[in-house]
Amino acid sequence: MSTNPNPPNSHSHSHTETKQVLHRLARASGHLDAVRKMVEEGQNCSDVLIQLSAVISALNRAGKVLLLDHLKHCVTDAEEGLGAWEEVEDALDKFFR
């Protein structure tokens, strides 16, 4: 496992939506802990699945905020090097794996 904080094809900078993304991730993490407890307690599978779906949605919303931030800032920077479309494709590929 690589310990390089900035592997090739990456960049380091502040995202404008970092606080919002961290807040969404913290909420999703807390929600996931509650789902784990539901499973441990043997609660109804349908209820667990509904709550698990909510966690997945919360993570997707956090990813969307980060993706939009990336598109607004990083892709704009790539336009100068004429690699904007490739940057968009790369970002979408990473998000929708």
UniProtKB/TrEMBL annotation:
This is Metal-sensitive transcriptional regulator. GO terms for molecular function: DNA binding; metal ion binding. GO terms for biological process: negative regulation of DNA-templated transcription. It comes from Proteiniclasticum sediminis. It holds the Pfam family Trns_repr_metal.
